[in-house]
Amino acid sequence: MKITIVAGARPNFIKIAPIIRAIENKKSAGIDISYRLVHTGQHYDKNLSDTFFEELNIPKPHSNLEVKSGSQAEQTAAIMIAFEKELIKFPRDLVLVVGDVNSTMACTIVAKKLNTKVAHVEAGIRSGDMTMPEEINRIVTDSITDYFFTTSEKASENLKKFGANSKDIHFVGNVMIDTLYQNQSRFEQPSFWNEFQLDIKNYIVLTLHRPANVDEVDSLINLLEGIDNLANGKKIIFPIHPRTKAILGEKKLDVKNIFMIEPQGYLNFMYLVKNSFAVITDSGGLSEETTVLGIPCFTMRNNTERPETITIGTNNLVGTSVENLEKIYSEFLKTSAKKSGIPELWDGKASERIIDILLSK
Fold first, then answer.
1. CATH code of domain 2-173+346-359
2. DSSP string, 80-93
3. Which of 48, 78, 184, 251 could form a disulfide with 43 if both were Cys (CB 3.0 to 4.6 A apart)?
């Protein structure tokens, strides 16, 4: 079996690493399987791209389409044009896509128009929010995918309601958690740890990148100053996304607890998360990792495509207003973290299940 694996953005790199590892293990066992890794270049900042390849031992991509930034339409079109040439030159039995970024949708469309089967890892998750570009990417991708690999029974049910054939839906677990387990012993203390006088459980990790939270500069400043006020004596470590940094520009912030740092590699960032008191974020994937690590998480969104992180895990959905965050966070300080567990099949073996299933097709 010949597979092309597509990766385009930071979350993709975390998800493809264990899949490549599972393929390599099969090859070592004499199984006839090979892969071609295509990096679309959707994330091209070194700290959002190259560092992850190095730290997670992902081989150098066979091809980098180098599409870089642009509007939703410009980026999607550029990926499709470049990936069509790639797939015509290197035809495959299967294209494997992960997650819900523009690269996922664009490469799925190209593959299907070239009569190549597609496997979607992390299929079926839904937020119900059509203002999210990711939600549109999920729906389009899942409408033409051949094999669906899901992280939860809820995601599988979403696909069945959508009309997907049950025989093509496979609940396998979460490849992002495979990466976490495979690298947990390698998490590395960042260089600024002592400079900032950090200690275990004495700081909060903050990440923000969604348009609803960062696109309007005045509301972003109001949000950051509100978060700064709830620190309760703890430092807030904020790896600032290049896009968010550009939006802030030269604006002055009235904050005393927030420490802005450059985007971190996987090993440094996960060390920060694992040892934090709590995480405030608008990331879906981070709510999965905090669930497994047992770290209280406060998600600044009105919805989530990962409900199991709330019903089973450590995640709290707090909306986009700083007032609501302050209320829920204050209640957490009084009552301590809620009881939580780890969702079914989030056991570090999802990638092995995926490759076993594909080889049986």
1. 3.40.50.2000
2. HHHHHHHHHHS--S
3. 48
